[in-house]
Amino acid sequence: MSQFSTYADLLAAVTTDGGSPVHDPATGELIGTYTVGTVADLDHAVATARVAQKDFAALKDEERCELLLKAADAVEAAAEPLAELLSREQGKPLNGPNARFEVGACAAWLRATASFESPDYTAVDDDITATVHYRPLGVVGAIGPWNWPMMITTWQFAPALRMGNAVVIKPSEYTPLSVLALAAVINDVLPANLLQVVTGDGSVGAAVTSHPDIDKIMFTGSTATGKKIVESSAANLHRLTLELGGNDAGIVLDDADPAAIAGDLFWGAFINTGQTCAAMKRLYVPESLYDAVCDALVEVAKASPMGVGLEEENVLGPLQNQQQFDIVDRLVKSAQDSGARVLLGGDPDYDAPGYFYPTTLVADIDPENPLVIEEQFGPALPIIKYTDLDWAIEQANKLDVGLGSSVWSSDRDRAREVAARLEAGTTWINGHGGVDPRVPFGGIKSSGYGVEFGTEGLKGLAYPHIING
């Protein structure tokens, strides 16, 4: 049995008396307090991680894979307490594609990462025998976001560990307990000091990106912060993987079935209450299907309850913080002020507890409205009417972001033809945002560079050492 088999056990492991408070974004209630780390704490973590990494790198690949599988077992044994803490701190409901889903994804990603074949290979012909060994980099600095704090942190450390690195994690100040808890559970089975968490404010994050003894930085977050990381890491020539902001477009083709796609359209946009980098944030619909798609989305939205995450019936929750609430509120108001038609939502109760913004669908909106061209990162979807497919494709590609996109059609071949014209790291057909640990994932333009997942992701956490001859 896990030592973290109850929520109380897990909370006790990650909270301290007299520390910084963490509040539930759904209710405002105090969850607990935690010790805020400093740059000195980071220096100590990096130094001890560097020592631990030497022995870990000497293990065989299969031994490291076995540790990842044990880590997955540990996560599964503590799954319910982890999900409860995540729901309380991040706000996402237990059910739907939310807290229990996220914890399950952590275990699944650990198992998948352990299952990939080693990227090592040998090239042989009459003139050459060259063996390519992917060697660990050393210490990886992982800076994670608040929207999927456990899952994205796992995306960062699982491949890093598989390739023989140590990892120092800097979680978001908004969701430190979730990451501390996940690390506590996994460290039950890992060698000491190999996976460490250092909390703190922006000064600690900045110190990670400029630390001379960190060999690789992985960051998921905003484009603005990503640019700062590029600048601060330049002096040390840190290797970087940056998964930055997006404003994903979905394009419905005129042969689609509105009723058939409505549910997947909705969750493509509103997964995690819209707080997902690769969520669909603007939807282009042909005039011939426009009203039908709008009506179908309204029906799905009405059937998707929003509320406190620990109440089992809810599948949508609050925004995680006041800053994000204000962004969504501003952008929806800009649409309303421009004369766009609000089909549902758009009228938050500012006096109610929690950062709840109602599920909002906005039709008949100008394609240049801020709600369309800025990333809202919340439960508000603009639906743009088009009459010319080439125009819709041009609109989808015009922004300086390119994380994901999608095409919706009853004709898969036609959908693939349109998909090939979209500028994004991933284009989904009849779905949006579904990532797979076996398939590389990353962005283009200002959505970042480098890829995660699969064998290509493993290669990004190592350097190729070629023995030639």
From TrEMBL:
It comes from Corynebacterium phoceense. Keywords: Oxidoreductase. Residues 20-459 form the Aldehyde dehydrogenase domain. GO terms for molecular function: oxidoreductase activity, acting on the aldehyde or oxo group of donors, NAD or NADP as acceptor. This is Aldehyde dehydrogenase family protein. InterPro entries: Ald_DH/histidinol_DH, Ald_DH_C, Ald_DH_CS_CYS, Ald_DH_CS_GLU, Ald_DH_N, Aldehyde_DH_dom, LUC3-like. Belongs to the aldehyde dehydrogenase family. It comes from the Bacteria. The active site is at 243.
